[in-house]
Design a protein that fits this description.
seven-stranded mixed beta sheet; Rossmann fold; about 400 residues; five-stranded parallel beta sheet; about 30% helix; alpha/beta
């Protein structure tokens, strides 16, 4: 793609932006696995050119092409993890007790398969409206259809008729071409009288870039939000931030907001700018060092004749295996999500199996693709009789 020499930040419209990270030819979809190896190997790829806005601290991929992303068959449900379930319980407690979400109307823009919305409605006696083009009751959730209505469509202007006291949107905004326009739509659905507000959940950019989590960078994520940039986008959309909560060991950022008040004002703290730029520069260096480290490990394991498996078939694994698609060395890829099993990872073509498959092979090294869940994965693997080494991606 051809890009303008001096890009303008799509959030604050300033041209004070810096390119800081580039990578080419990575899989564009991590939420969709393929039914055959041939399809997987032909899956589309794209480039990443991350840009940092010095004015509002927004980070975005200016090489992003939205036509390469398909949300209609998306499957990234995390509720199969006990750790993720505990996180959901914490969030439910905050919403019901701190924000008084009981006997209210809640709209979930990008509800996925609806698990969280069902829980929130049942626990708080709320009425729910879930909107998502990929929705299907694949886990046979039990709920009252008179209490919760699921709409298998994209959330857009056509959904303005659905009025709600509260709107939530989890891990959708960061994957959209125009996140500002999307959040502005919330104004159409919030009740005019005594609305409670909105909740947006996104990956925490500070956690990724300051902790050098280089495999976190996927094509499907158009945006990376810092506390400053999410506050700025709320302001531009007509909302003010009332609370930002770090979740899941800081991996996620939960942003609670309400319609903007007349006297509200917000200014980015410029003193944080130099520290941000430093961490971004170091991130690019860390990516190169990480590639060298894993290349060395793979060569070592190959020389030893080790059998290697990888646990976790999400974005980090897809990125890693597209760089190191060594089918002779890596004999098994595992995921606890049954809807991702028996399907193939884009580009690398690895077949995803169930955790029980670990019992059938003499694996020497198990790579854990997501460090956040490493203890849960280790415990699960050991319970299946695994006695080899662990390596954290």
């Amino acid at each position: 793609m051809n890009h303008q020499a001096v890009p303008t930040c799509p959030i604050c419209q300033q041209d004070n932006v810096n390119d800081f990270f580039q990578v080419e030819e990575i899989p564009t979809q991590d939420g969709i696995l393929l039914s055959s190896k041939e399809q997987a190997e032909k899956a589309p790829t794209g480039n990443i050119e991350l840009v940092f806005c010095k004015a509002c601290h927004y980070i975005y991929n200016r090489a992003y092409e939205p036509e390469k992303i398909d949300f209609t068959k998306y499957e990234m449900a995390m509720h199969y993890s006990s750790m993720y379930q505990e996180f959901n319980k914490k969030l439910l407690n905050i919403l019901i007790n701190d924000f008084k979400l009981s006997n209210k109307v809640i709209l979930d823009a990008g509800c996925g398969k609806g698990h969280f919305l069902v829980e929130l409605c049942q626990l708080g006696n709320n009425t729910g409206i879930g909107i998502d083009p990929s929705y299907e009751n694949s886990d046979n959730l039990e709920f009252n259809p008179n209490q919760i209505n699921f709409i298998k469509e994209y959330y857009n202007e056509a959904q303005s008729e659905h009025k709600a006291d509260f709107i939530m949107c989890r891990h959708v905004v960061d994957e959209l071409d125009d996140p500002l326009a999307f959040i502005k739509l919330f104004n159409n659905n919030l009740k005019e009288i005594d609305p409670i507000g909105i909740y947006v959940e996104v990956p925490n950019a500070l956690n990724t870039f300051e902790n050098k989590l280089t495999w976190n960078i996927g094509y499907a994520k158009r945006s990376w939000f810092t506390p400053e940039s999410i506050t700025q986008i709320y302001k531009e959309a007509g909302f003010e931030v009332v609370r930002i909560e770090p979740f899941l060991k800081g991996n996620y950022m939960g942003v609670f907001g309400k319609p903007i008040s007349k006297n509200y004002s917000y200014q980015v703290d410029d003193q944080k700018q130099s520290a941000r730029i430093k961490s971004f520069t170091e991130f690019s260096e860390a990516f190169d060092k990480g590639l060298a480290k894993w290349k060395s490990l793979i060569e070592e394991w190959t020389q030893k004749g080790s059998k290697v498996a990888l646990w976790g078939a999400g974005m980090r694994a897809i990125n890693f295996l597209s760089v190191f698609p060594d089918h002779d060395l890596i004999s098994l890829v595992i995921d606890i999500n049954p809807h991702r099993q028996n399907k193939f990872l884009p580009r690398s073509g690895f077949l995803v199996g169930a955790p029980e498959n670990l019992q059938n092979q003499a694996i020497d090294v198990l790579i854990i693709s997501n460090p956040t869940y490493q203890q849960e994965i280790k415990d699960h693997a050991i319970s299946l009789g695994y006695k080899g080494e662990f390596e954290i991606l």
